[in-house]
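Schema walk-through. Below, the input block comes first and the output block second. Nothing else is stored per chain. Lengths vary across the set, and this one has 243 residues.
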Amino acid sequence: MYAVPFDPQHLPRHVGIIMDGNGRWAKKNKLKIALGHRAGTEALRGIIRNSSDIGIQALSLYAFSTENWQRPKAEVDALMGLLLEFFQSEIDELNERNIRILILGEKDELPPEQRLALNRAEIRTFPNTGLRLNIAINYGGRAELTRAARRMAREAVDGLLLPEEINEAAVENHLYTAGMPDVDLLIRTSGEMRLSNFMLWQCAYAEFVFPQKLWPDFTLEDYHACIAQYQSRSRRWGGREAE
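--- output ---
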């Protein structure tokens, strides 16, 4: 039993998490930043398992943005190493749990070993019908929308898509998350309150929760508290509450 109750019948279909605070956690604990990212990976394992267990349909994790390449090389190398280690150590269990992995972002720009591991994970878990685990790597929301626009433009030039057929549904069908529900609950740890270019289209009507805890300290109790907070809100999608 967990300390924070929530209604299992009214879960968010799609949860997005910006896992923020690994570097500050390392600094606070007088550790190298790579150890902060490793601690963040440990926190992630429980959240993925629990999301699958309680029946979340999709979980989207912001692991590495297009802007993160600007960080010091040692930190980027550490992140790439952890990425490879995570898939090598977790893929068997994720597959056994019927979890399907989808990578959001441009894999072609990743180092060859990481790119191969991600492709293998997507192919291996493709038939699975449980939790959709979306991992955003070399991802940016604006880049995703630009990619969708470019693909639609090519289809229009080829006569496969008429200009008047370009509507919201057409855009959604050209996103990485085509066929998935929009994000219902967006969680960003560490107290920062911004999207940082994450899933700009999909978060249009998401409920935002900003826990103060740094990501490595984020527990299942904290996760359930975020779900409970989501369930306490009235979602109107631009309308008004019924009187």
